[in-house]
TrEMBL record:
Residues 64-74 have a biased composition (Polar residues). This is PHD finger protein 24. Gene3D superfamilies: EF-hand, Zinc/RING finger domain, C3HC4 (zinc finger). Keywords: Metal-binding, Zinc, Zinc-finger. It comes from Labrus bergylta.
Amino acid sequence: MSKKQQVEKVQKCNAVVSAFQATVKERAIVKQIEEVEEAEAKSSASPDEKNTEEAEKEEADSTAGPSTSQQATASARDECKVNQEAWSRLRDGKGVEPEDMDKTHQLTPPAYVRPKREADDDQPIEIELENKEQPPSDEMCDVCEVWTADDLYPCRICTRVFHDGCLRELGYLRAEALQEMRDTAHTVTGWSCYYCDNVNLLLTEEEMYSLMETFNQCKIIPESCLVSDELLQYRHFASKQLFDKDLTDEQEEEVLSQFTALDPEKKGHIEWSDFLYFESLAVLRKLRTENSLVRLLTAKERDTARSVFKGLVLDKDGVITRAESRQAQQSWFHKLNKEPQSCNVSISHVGPICESSPASSGSERSKTDESRPVTWADFLRESAIYIVAARPNSSAMHIRLPL
């Protein structure tokens, strides 16, 4: 029996149990209503037995509003109606539709819990090249936990699936982002859910605190867009704080190149999310080891890396060259290249490129180094940061591509 059939069987069983419980409850409520109405009928049949004070009190209560028993009766009837509607939906196998949900109780944005580094986080992890994982997508919406077959949109990074209506009600995606999801989620390009799209969520509490301290020192206002002058000012201030010197003309040009890469649509400003993702990846690149970055990869990402590596292996040794490895690392961003990128983004943390940074030394790489053999394990370690950097749906380039 497949997982889908098991889910349907459980849903039907739950539906029968719920219907039985609702029927029992309704009978009890109906009996209670009949007893209340009978008591009211008896009391109204002998009004002469009541004294004047009680009559005045009842009149005052009726003027003020419905009695407690009447309110209980109305509430019970409403609850019966809700139970009947719920049973009807479950009986049809559709469950609760996103449009019919009680938004105040059921569509609550999730509370994010930042990850914690494990003791063995920096230790190598063995990932077999031939052992393709092929994880199936979930069968129920991650928000409302309801299965509605073709109406679900999968994430290309994790196994979560979503209703577009649920995402719309959560307010995480604007109209154009929702349309992009509908257009790409079932294609080869794919779509990243709001968990995977936000690479800032990969940072631990300590790493995020360090990043926020830098923003505070550099007078960066969260949730605000940055123009080129503000980015230059930010880099100048960071250079003063970290290196106690101003940016050179060459470094200023590099900052403007970063700005261009983060503003692919040429709006004249950088969106806050793109700036935050760029800085978050810089923190990961600076503070995490390659082994730690490999542990961040999902099963789907590892499978994609396997396919790319196997496509490059031409000899019996099962290795590729470093040049081929660097070329393959650019393939993660093919989905983003709506227009040719004319410049790259620095991978250094806040501040300019220094002489010891990987970006500045890239042009001096020797031909001997380019022909160095790269195994599957080496390829995965070196590619992990680029695979993670390709998660966002944005067309901005959040990391410098290998030369």
